[in-house]
Amino acid sequence: MSSKLESLCQALRKHLGERVESLQVAFGEVNLDVKVDTYLESMFILRDNPELRCEELIDLCGVDYSAYGNGTWTGKRFAVVSQLLSISNNWRVRVRCFAENDDFPSVPSVVEVWNSVNWFEREAFDLYGIVFPGHPDLRRILTDYGFVGHPFRKDFPVCGYVEMRYDSEQRRVVYQPVTIEEREITPRVVRENTYGDV
């Protein structure tokens, strides 16, 4: 581990203390797990502390660990992962926070820390069903308002639950249960008579 990453790890342990669940270095980046009840406070510290100075939140995404490790995962199911960048210190920190309840995953919003996270949190809500209390406008961003379920969850069917189509008689878009007609696909082999001749 480089001296720069080592000094970053020491600063994280010093300023975050008991909020840290896990701290490790992988692929040249620091990975930090924080507790959900201290998540918002930890993010403020990461941004405002002069030794840490993570001025930018580059990305935030949801993760569903239910099928992680070929089903051997025994931890909590949903997590929120944030990529933070310190321009002044030239380092990155990956922050992960697990939601306590798998049935209703909830992680505090960090919009008041970095307002650029607004649409990232909406995307995690839309695709994974992770709720962000404190978010000013938490609604779907990629799927339709009538969409049922959250398509990036591992238990969501590949074909979905409903399909939409335009009904020319009703002159509007209608939703109906997914219909998949089974069909047999037999490849057709075409060879020329002179195939393989030299």
Question: How would you describe this protein?
Answer:
With 198 residues, the chain is α+β, with helices and mostly antiparallel strands. It has one domain (3-142): NADH:ubiquinone oxidoreductase Nqo5 subunit (Beta Polymerase, domain 2). It contains three helices and seven strands. The chain has helices spanning 3-16, 39-48, 118-128, and strands spanning 20-26, 29-34, 56-64, 78-86, 91-98, 162-167, 172-177. The strands form two sheets. It has a five-stranded mixed sheet. Strand 1 (20-26) and strand 2 (29-34) form a beta hairpin.
Helix-strand layout with pairing:
Layout: H1 3-16, E1 20-26, E2 29-34, H2 39-48, E3 56-64, E4 78-86, E5 91-98, H3 118-128, E6 162-167, E7 172-177
Parallel strand pairs: 2-5
Antiparallel strand pairs: 1-2, 3-4, 4-5, 6-7
Proper CATH architecture: 2-Layer Sandwich
CATH superfamily: NADH:ubiquinone oxidoreductase Nqo5 subunit
Give the N-to-C terminal Cα separation. 59 Å
Count of individual domains: 1
CATH topology (level 3) name: Beta Polymerase, domain 2
**Which CATH class is shown?**
Alpha Beta
Structural class: alpha+beta
Along the chain, the helix and strand elements come as: HEEHEEEHEE
**Sheet with the most strands?**
5 strands, mixed
Helicity level: 10-25%
Rounded to an integer in angstroms, the radius of gyration calculated over CA atoms is 23 Å
